Amino acid sequence: MENGLAGLSLDEEEDAVLQIQAKQVEERREETFRLVGCFLTASVINFSTMKNTMANLWNPVRGVNIRDLGEKRYLFQFYHRMDLERVLKGCPWTFNNHLLVLHVIQWGEDPLRIPLIKASFWIQIHDIPTGFYSENLAIQLGNFLGEFMEYDGSSLGKENRNYMRIRVKIDVRRPLKKRKQILCYGRLSYVKFRYERLSLFCFFCGRLGHNDLFCDAKMLLGMEVAEMGWDLSLRAQSRRAVTTSSVWLREEEIGQTRGNTEDKTIIEDDARVGNSQMAKHGKFIDPVLGFNLEGRKAWEKQLEIGEGGEKASAGWRGRMLEVRRLRYMLRLQNPQMVFFMEMKICRSRMERIRHRCRYVNGIEVDPEGTRRGLCLAWKQGVNVTLHQFSKRHINVVIDDDEVKGKWRFTGFYRSPYERDKNNSWEELRSLYTGERFSWFVCGDFNEIMYGFEKKGRVPRDERRMELNLEIDKDERYWEQRTRINWLRYGDKNTAFFHSQASSRRRKNMIQKMQSDNGQVTENIQDIKNIARAYFRNLFGTEERECCNYLLSKIKRCITEEDNQFLMAPYTKEDNQFLMAPYTKEEIREATFGMGPTKASGEDGFLVIFYQQCWHIVKDEVNSFCLQVLNKGRDFKQVNSTHIVLIPKIANLTNMKQFRPISLCNVIYKIMAKAIANRLRGVIKKCIDAAQSAFVPGRLITDNILLAYEILHTLKQKRMGRKGFMAVKLDMSKAYDRVEWNFVKEIMIRMGFANGWIETILECIIFISYSVVINGFKGENFWPSRDLRQGDPLSPFLFLMCGEGLSSLMRLAMSEGSLKGVKASRSGPKISHLLFADDCILFSDASSRGAIVLKEILKKYRSSSEQSVNFDKSTVFFSTNTLEIERNLVINILGVRSSNNPKRYLGLPNMVGRKKKESFQILKDKMKQRIDHWSTRHLSQGRKEIFIKSILQAIPTYMMACIHWCEWRKLYDLKENGSLGFRNMCQFNTALLAKQGWRLIVYPDSLLARVLKAKYFPNSDFLNAQLGNLPSLTWRSIWAAKGLLRSGMGWRVGRGTEISVWDDHWIPGKEINGWEHQTENEVKLVADLIDAENNEWKTELVERPFTADIAEKVLQIPLAKNLGADIQIWRGELSGDFLVRSAYKILQNARMDPNDLLLQTDTKKFYKKLWNLKLPSKLLITVWRASWNYLPTLVNLRSKRIATSMVCPRCGSGEEDIGHVFRFCPATKEIWHLLKL
Q1: Distance CA 1034, CA 623 (A)
Q2: Could you list the residue range(s) of the whole structural domain that residue 872 is in?
Q3: Where would I find the Reverse transcriptase domain in this sequence (predicted)?
């Protein structure tokens, strides 16, 4: 003892202060079980979380106190030697993967001066030669690694263990050792080291405490390293800690607590009561597990409280630790009002506890036995008026001086019992009184919003709180954030939307950016500056040449007189119609004609806000929009635009690798949509027939079918000296390079009024941009060219810009310098096809043709600044083109040659014998969607919607042009007992029939003229023959003729084209006319009409027909001025072809007779089932049960999956559908409890 005191090395002043007796020193030494430690990291450690985590990991029987010493060091005070030794033996310990370096504090050591440089690890030594497993080798290797501590030879050779295990104390400042060369039997070999519970370490330098991203040695090297010296093979296993509140963690001593004296007294009083009760009844609290093993009743029976000799409820007084923590929390947070639930004590005791917590005022509600019990407490100065209360709630109104008004507070406790659930919600709903001020509801709803909130025990399906419409609002918010528009029906999916929103945010986050000089920066301000400079340069105008030559072939199409080509109701002359004052109806039509959940602009509002709240905001919206459109009010303040960058690939850094999206304000988009709706009525007259995008009456499939037909012709052309070529162009930044003056000159040439042109230019010129990077807005800038892709006007204005290229192609054709390509000898010449900025040019495959195309593109660029990326453009030659001509064309144009152009507008251009390879993209897209949408978040009902809205929609586009495969499962109508999935074969046929219908309805379209000239020059489509060497697209469309014939009919005009006996022209009646054709002279419907009086010949009609058919004929109205007969689609009242009705005709035509019987018996049942307002997963379960599709043991036995069919619940019968839902005793008991 005296030697120990001498070793303290204290100076004279300190010796004078520490005049203590030897006996006291001995006692102090025996009670000191302390560790000092630090975490090997530069990151900030959350002290509160760390305390609970480490205490839960260690589980000390006598507890542990953890203090922050500063300088990133912590003191760990244990209260028994066994607790301390168990922690040391369990090293290494980590928190958030950061290594904890520990040292035992000896008597007299300063914890702030102790070197913390060594940590102990269990290390596995692998690849030791057989026969050399010995403790001697373990000691040698241990001393090589650091300081040998222990050799584990107890379980060597067991459980296939083929390594040596030693405990070593290593220096954390040195790199981890990976292997050691040893000599055995005269041969050199290496043994490898694996560290158990290895924490964060650097792959570059091998040191603990950091990774290679923050490695100082790597930064000094100044260059990227392709190969690291260390890897995860050093890690034998990992260990995680659980972060929860710990019952083993001791707080600071009461005497050390700072703060108000009164608070301190309360805490000390609780501590005395609690400690005395624990001392008296300590046998009920297990010191290791931290809870009562014998149960609550054993404590309640013997626990007495000194006030009046009353027995205390174990729900409150029995848990003094909770009482103490509650008061300590109230002292720290100092709330003005507190709501207590499940007090489980009488009102008088609640009141005493409230007063001891320094809350003068309050309302108490008595419990029901040992359940419930509420209390609302508030401090002096809070003005509270009680409205009502019950066993489940306390409802008050607060007159708040801070907000200068009143608001309502409701403390609510919902019963945890399922039988009381509905009553609880109804009681809460009844509290709503319709006041204008705010209402705040809080408490314990005994419900979860999302499945991940459930912690422990049996997992639970997601259920939603049925509280007003707030949860639906939450789901709509996340649905809008994820941009998922397909999930319109089915049960709730907020967890799914959460995951998708998080995934989108991670994917779209921009971490770094490369500047023009090649430097990469991660600073957000530098990234914003780089993006702003890039777009300012891109949107900057360039000097253009005179475009009079280009404009010479653009005709004046906007008339000054009545125009018969305008679609109804547009019958006025064009400019008068365009310049007419706008109306409120047009503003409303524009508002509801936009997608409701499209991305919002600077104002932050989505279109759905205006649509749902139109009855509230319509007056303000109409007033502003009409003042701008009709009176010229300035609208620059609503014409600001955000540019959001969407990554095209992963891990991108260059601005060219992003897809910019322009987000306009909704108010501006409403006005622009109203203008665009008017422009849509006349745009067809202004745009060349080769352009099929955004023009009413034209579809994208027109260009696909045309391109396929021409390329098929080029591929089949093997004879002749003259070859042809198709050049597919890649336009670079087409929308971003549109020059406003060029569009203006085009519109003037087309004949638009000056006032209309000025209105258009105001929309596209007076705009400002700001780039948004990771949610942060950059500085504004103003462009001098560009069309915004989110602007409703942009598509139509870009078509006018593209007319410049069409004009040059028409000029070259008229001058004879460009020949074009024909799909057949008598067919029209086609020089180009356009769909927005997708372009294919056709010409003769010669040096002359290549020079002409090059010159056209050069003139187009000099006039409009539209640029072609020749590196990404390709050329396809007809089979008969000579190799020398091919090389000349490639060199002149500077494009790549392709023997088989893969895709145009997303579909394959050429389909040969290997059709599976051509359409593999469909399977790939489906798999990508399934993987991307994370269907593990979806229930059965949600998967049904997913399949119908996403997976089955993927092949729709392709099946509209090409015949596809058949899917035979679950494709019938829902009322017929199916799930309503599409029969892909029948749906394919219906889509192809639509293409045939367009050939009939639009005979003057470019596609119809090409196909007619090639396949049916002397007949119509319905009577066309397949022909020789037809293309795949024509074979597909031709195969759908039968469906068209069965569904087409006639609307009677003059009747000269309608056969009485062969055509469908009588509504709701079919004529079996073959037996009458030879007996009657009546052949055409015109024979039954009195043309002079415009009425039916009654006697002639009644002669060949039965009475009911004759009555139907006479009911058909005839116009005063008989026009031409019109072909209509009988499946729709409007007479227009719809894929839906054509698909239904196919389903009814191919229905099995057994299905008809089934439909008669079950249609009402299934119709009622699918109309129930229940989650889809429940409806699908009932549907599966009705068809015996559930995996009962009987069904599993029939499929040889299960061996027994006996019900595992009752053991008294076979488990089939009837037994599961009706006859099982367990099921009967459930129905009885549910009162069903």
Answers
A1: 53
A2: 699-736+788-902
A3: 627-909
